[in-house]
Amino acid sequence: MSYLERIRRPADLRQLSPAELDVLAKEVRDFLVTAVARTGGHMGPNLGVVELTIALHRVFDSPRDRVVFDTGHQAYVHKLLTGRQDFGDLRHRGGLSGYPSRAESDHDIVENSHASTALSWADGIAKANQLRGLGDRSVVAVIGDGALTGGMAWEALNNIADGQDRSVVIVVNDNGRSYAPTIGGLARHLDALRTTPHYEKVLDWGKRTLQRSGPPGRMAFEALHGMKKGLKDVIAPQGLFEGLGIKYVGPIDGHDIGEVEMALRRAKAFGGPVIVHAITQKGRGYTPAETDVVDRFHAVGVIHPETGLPVAPSRFGWTSVFAEEIVEIGRRRSDVVALTAAMLAPVGLAPFAEEFPDRVFDVGIAEQHAVTSAAGMAFAGLHPVVALYATFLNRGYDQLLMDVALHRAGVTFVLDRSGLTGDDGASHNGMWDMALLRTVPGLRLAAPRDEPTLRAALRDAVAVEDGPTVVRYPKGAVPDALPAVGRQGSVDVLARHGGVPRVLVVGVGVMAHTAVEVGVALDAQGIGSTVVDPRWVLPVSEDLVSLAGQHDLVVVVEDGLASAGIGSALRDALAAAGADVPVRCHGIPLRFLEHASRAQLVEEFHLRGPDIARETAAAVAALAPERQDPAVRLRPTGR
Ligand SMILES: Cc1ncc(C[n+]2csc(CCOP(=O)(O)OP(=O)(O)O)c2C)c(N)n1
Ligand SMILES: CC(=O)[C@@H](O)[C@H](O)COP(=O)(O)O
Ligand SMILES: [Mg+2]
């Protein structure tokens, strides 16, 4: 039996000798490479925290002590050490989540995989522990150098520093990278620390004790403190954290279990806020990851474990189309610049950065800053394109509303991974964007259905200079082009079935393909329909409203919240126009979604063409008699 198999719970780790722990670390790495190659997942981040996580669970007594992982994509080792070693269905329905999950284990606390929240969680837990008389329990937050660039992390540090009598241990897992190398002043600061002689090895760890132990101790402390001041020019960088009032320990070698353990024990004993700065290597121990120049195998699909090569080529077709088109646009328009929140390659901006290095800005994991700084750029004469995953726009909603829209700034938002993304679970589905953006005055949103409409939407979006524009598209491969058979005003007509079309089927974005299937299936049941794609879905156009008014029933199929998306916006617009036409909305239900494949979720939510057609046919049959007779059906009362 391997050492890994013998670890049923963290306490088992404490039985192993240093040599056995090294063997365990190797077993964990081998396990990760084999398992993650089979399912896909966060390979590089987890390979980098093997020793760190082993040491954490030897020093702290989880779940009595609380260990919070920021973002949570680096929690696979934690899972392995807390009784979860069946990775066969990792990120698949019914299998382990790719993030901490309370349903899986008491050792898991934070499921939110939006970055930079762990320090606030830790601050809150520590405050509650103190008030409830549980102040002897440690609270540990593990945060990456990338996540530390997020504003929330700094808001939390400011607060944690105020609780000198609360034990919060902040482990900075510094691998120098987010996906790509982490940017900015903080990254430079950490870099400087990395190359600084070990500060805490120079100074006496006991100085806090000395300071508390009467006059002789205090004198000794003053001497040490003076020494520290004298050393300041050489070892000044840690001043950033210590200046805030948070003790800094490090830098330590995050791959040396003994060294990490010693630092953590000292941090635990300290009894106040401490930062333990651990230097790690993303992708450690797996050559394809260690040598990968793009992102050290941050998140991979299914790969061949021996080579690291993908089993299926190009998972991200929509991203590639955007990547090409934005370069084309950039060539024509020197005022177009691009912003990314630490995701240059994943959002498709790498080719743009290569051709226009001065016109692309990686702001760190700082979506809020990205949005407001884009407003500033627009004010000063540029046209910024802010490229984000749809779910991360949630972070910048207020900035979009107040800084961009209120100021009518010409900023384009490109939302990749919109709609159901599936395997990353609850917090990664891009299902909130349309519901949120509906509430932004003056905002225009396009949902392209294929490659030509994506290219056209981007070109149109960057031409708008008097307010925000948004282009959203999903994760995965681009479906075949779906040409329009006609146009009704601004609306693309994709199909017409039957002499008297009774149903207007509206497909939003990629769901236009499903809408076409619905039309065909209705036709087979003798129900005429018009199938359309409005392309620009926000605000709801007058053309769409008037088209809807010419039908007995409207069916909207969208890859967003059914209760608050384009269908419900169209229903409101019809009501405002006095048109009495029922609207049926087919989309994502209002709940947090467990990880599963996109196809499984589409099936579960009855979003496949035949399912929607069946429900639509039943709805047509249930229409009031006068609506069922095309000759006498109600017409809209006009706008
Ligand atoms: C708010 C937010 N924006 C973007 C992301 C996407 N994202 C996931 S991990 C990651 C990089 C994290 O870097 P770091 O914290 O250093 O962790 P590492 O992967 O290097 O261990 C990013 C940008 C996210 N999870 N949350
Ligand atoms: C943790 C995180 O936010 C990303 O790493 C995400 O898991 C990647 O998703 P894609 O594979 O869709 O780029
Ligand atoms: Mg990092």
Automatic annotation (TrEMBL):
PROSITE patterns: TRANSKETOLASE_1 (PS00801), TRANSKETOLASE_2 (PS00802). Thiamine diphosphate binds at residues 73, 113-115, 146-147, 175, 286, 367. Coiled coil: none annotated. Mg(2+) binds at residues 145, 175. InterPro entries: Dxylulose-5-P_synthase, THDP-binding, Transketo_C/PFOR_II, Transketolase-like_Pyr-bd, Transketolase_BS, Transketolase_C, Transketolase_CS. Residues 316-480 form the Transketolase-like pyrimidine-binding domain. Its cofactor is thiamine diphosphate; Mg(2+). One of its GO terms (biological process) is thiamine biosynthetic process. It is an enzyme of class 2 (transferase). GO terms for molecular function: 1-deoxy-D-xylulose-5-phosphate synthase activity; magnesium ion binding; thiamine pyrophosphate binding. It catalyses: D-glyceraldehyde 3-phosphate + pyruvate + H(+) = 1-deoxy-D-xylulose 5-phosphate + CO2. Its EC number is 2.2.1.7. Belongs to the transketolase family. DXPS subfamily. Catalyzes the acyloin condensation reaction between C atoms 2 and 3 of pyruvate and glyceraldehyde 3-phosphate to yield 1-deoxy-D-xylulose-5-phosphate (DXP). This is 1-deoxy-D-xylulose-5-phosphate synthase. It comes from Georgenia ruanii.
